[in-house]
Write a structure and sequence with these properties.
six-stranded parallel β-sheet, 8 strands, Rossmann fold, alpha/beta, binds adenosine-5'-triphosphate, binds magnesium ion, two-stranded parallel sheet, 242 residues
Length: 242
């Protein structure tokens, strides 16, 4: 397992928060973690070092020394899907081969690369390619982050259906932002997701005051789902270093 992709049911659902937590937990276990935000779009650049705020958050979590362009080959200076943003800004259109080369270069340098998506699976990258096409070619396990609020069942089922249509390897769902004071509807939502989604609910993350404090929940995913699949890769890379 050379990479793990974090996608979401929508923009703003917590992909960066969950991806950064996974990075921190893996690092704490001595794993050399790389990060990637292949496509980013925002109103202006975040800093001189990192054009995208998401790249900055993930790179800091990973203590990454890779360059901004290695981790984020495509940055658009308007917040829109790459297909739309590239047309508006006249910036370079997405090239699948460029982004795949960037991933493979990072994968050589790290035990695992945590890749954060953009928006959701059906985000158009070009006129003919969606983000799901990229995930399919990347061929890495995928975690889907979803909200715990009104509208999420629809988004979850659409995302799971799309992932099946594209033949993606979905590891499961992370239900993010579960209310601290749960109602009967909140509880029933989780039951409904477990019954209807057809993919495992990996964990439920509460709505928290400080997002860097969600490790205890993420730990379970790392121990149960990621480390077992990473074992051989880590062992081999350790052997190669010697
Ligand atoms: N469990 C949580 N508790 C409280 N706040 C959260 C939680 N998860 C995410 N947030 C906040 O919600 C906002 C959106 O989260 P985040 O940036 O991770 O979403 P995203 O899916 O990566 O968005 P984008 O599509 O822009 O990449 C952020 O301000 C983040 O701090
Ligand atoms: Mg993000």
């Amino acid at each position: 397992m050379r990479g793990l992709l974090i996608t979401g049911t929508d923009t703003g659902v917590g992909k960066t928060v969950i991806a950064a937590a996974l990075v921190r937990v893996l690092r704490a276990r001595g794993i050399n973690v790389g990060i990637m935000k292949p496509f980013a779009a925002a109103k202006g650049i975040f800093s001189r070092k990192y054009r995208s705020k998401d790249t900055a958050i993930l790179a800091r979590a990973a203590h990454a020394t890779d360059t901004d362009r290695e981790m984020n080959p495509f940055f658009y200076s308007v917040p829109a899907a790459p297909y739309v943003a590239s047309a508006v800004t006249k910036q370079t259109k997405v090239s699948m081969s460029t982004v795949l080369d960037a991933f493979h270069n990072l994968a050589i340098k790290h035990d695992i690369v945590i890749v954060e998506g953009i928006g959701g699976l059906m985000v158009p990258l070009t006129q003919t390619e969606t983000f799901a096409d990229f995930v399919k070619i990347l061929n890495v396990p995928t975690i889907v982050v979803a909200r715990c609020s009104l509208g999420t069942l629809n988004h979850i089922l659409l995302t799971v259906n799309a992932s099946k249509a594209y033949g993606l390897d979905v590891m499961g769902l992370v239900m993010n932002g579960f209310p601290q004071r749960e109602t009967a509807v909140d509880k029933q939502l989780l039951t409904a997701v477990k019954k209807l989604a057809g993919v495992e609910v990996l964990c439920v993350i509460p709505k928290v005051a400080e997002v860097t404090n969600i490790h205890f929940k993420i730990e379970e995913i790392v121990v149960d789902k990621i480390l077992p699949r990473l074992h051989i890769g880590s062992f081999v890379s350790e052997m190669l270093k010697k």
